[in-house]
Amino acid sequence: MSSCKAPTAVHVGADDVHIDGVWVSLQRGDLARAAESVSRIRDPVFAERARRDVQAAQEGRPAALFACLAEGSWLAARYDASDERARRRLRDAKRRQRPEPHPAVWLEDGRRSTGHGRRVSALQPIWGASSGGPEALALEVESLLAQQRFAEAARRLDRAQGSTGRLRLAQRRLDAATGRARAVAAGVLDDLRAGQGLPASLRLLEDVLVRVPLDGVEREARELLAVDSAEGWLMGRTRDRLRARLAARAGDLAGAAATLAGIEPRLAYEDRMLRRWQVRLGQATPRWLEERIDVSSARDGDQAMSTRRLADEWSLEARATYREALDEGREHSLDDFVARLDEAASPLAEGPLLADLPRHDYGVFGQRLETEPLRARLGPAFVLSGKAIGLPADMTWFDVEECVSLPLPVIDGEQGDDAAGGGTYLECRVRANRVPGLLASQGASISGAGIDRLVFLDLDHIDYMERFASGPPNPPVLEPMPAHGADERRDLSEPLDVVFKLDAAIRADAGSDYRRRLIESLSLHEQRHILDFHEFMGRGVFGKVSMIFSGGLLPASVRAEIERRAQLYAMRNATDPRIALRDAVERVPVEGLQRRSEHAMGYAELVRGFLVVLDTEAWEGARPLAELGLDRGASLLQQLDRLDPETVRAIARAIDG
Prior knowledge:
The protein is α+β, with helices and mostly antiparallel strands. It is built from 31 helices and 9 strands. The protein has helices at about 15-30, 30-40, 45-60, 60-70, 75-80, 85-95, 105-110, 115-125, 135-145, 150-155, 165-175, 180-195, 200-210, 215-225, 235-250, 255-260, 270-280, 290-295, 305-330, 335-345, 375-380, 440, 460-465, 485-490, 500-510, 515-540, 540-550, 555-575, 580-585, 600-615, 645-655; strands at about 10, 160, 360, 365-370, 380-390, 395-405, 425-435, 450, 455-460.
């Protein structure tokens, strides 16, 4: 194999076709077809990798990891929860396989690498190999697309001699990213004709057809989707949603609604789409912006239409400022930020001016706009905008489902704290994020936020958490991994399937009360933010400085500590404290980009503290671990599902004690 530079052409060999066939089937959710394709792969290492990929899809990642560890296979690196440990395994595999490690080792090294340069360096040795070149090319192109280096991505794709599903999808994504709507549509239709459609490519076609009227394309898409025979649950639900949208565009609202109603469980935006069609059919009362627009007899002058346009303008401009801050380091003050949004909305008649809104100044915490006056103009809208220390200015706008005034408890000396409280705060249950905040614009899942006496909970995100259980339906029983000494017992790098087990136990105990308990846990988390905020604001200058130093010198460390305290509060006070524990464990291990997430850092510190108290049996009413069903000779993290709710609560109360 050559390791100097990529060749001018990448050939798709027979094994590459079958390797890709497994990937395509897994993308579709067609596990039976994926397993069948494995048998056609001649290369024994690629065949074993494909078998383990199918096992991971059927039984969960931990099951595939256990199988590889039992065999002493380097493939354990592919299923390791820790990128850092996976890279160590890969380095060992390269040493053992000298002078020429198998192409699959280099591919995994490329997939696990951080940064485009390191990824390309890892993939270079594969060029010229009998198998693996097309997959390496696809990985490189995906990396270039993520960096918006579109011209380079196009040049790389020109190297391919032959086609795979992964390379076709990369081309469709490149066409979409460069605004070539007709090329996206034509390419996806070609894929459908050849029986090569993928859920991801159908989503791209859906995005195009929603935004661009292409009558001929829509007609042909309806015909092809009517006869498409690709199997797999994910392919089926994606295909049905596109069928429904195309039926609605063709005027068959009743058929569209019936098709979409058959998808279970539905995502939040699928629910809104179904409701919108039901409103048009007279089966529901208009409530949200789009529904009011649909039934308006004077669309051009309709208040709902102008509000929707305003949201679009603010969203586009807000995203532009986020990109400038993240990519170019150009941080805007709150005044500059709102001036940009006002300028973007200036062509709209009688739009509200953000610059005219009062400010709340929180000293070192930052500033917030007083957005209450916007409600007279925007209707049932929740708008939160401001600038926190160390972060760019941002804005969040949701539709409001309901707002309730709740009592803010007075906490007197809780675990040594003197948290201020009393009075009430406003908690708004919201949906439909119309202007995303900074973190949401980067793909982060935000269940809620709170500052001062104002909290929002995102019901769309809560619906997703409620409807979509994590993990495979019938995972195998996996024993916790052996641990030698306290460090290994308390290690956070491999949670195995404990999140799945916690989730199953929580749902089984809650039954129909699960949603209420989930909302309660999230609400308590945000309530703690308000208590901490008022404690901070109630302190003098020296008290504020002391509090900041107690959370770390950097603002990110302070925010991580605030998140840790909020999740700990939920764990102590919720009906089922395991919900907060599950959500914290779900963020570990904290590596790579996760180290930039205050939630992840704070939650990891909370879990670490929880394991210390558990390991030392240092909580009130503690019982020996053996009596609780825990094995002191194994990872404690992987056994947390064995703890009953009150033991979890008791351990949480001992943290910081």
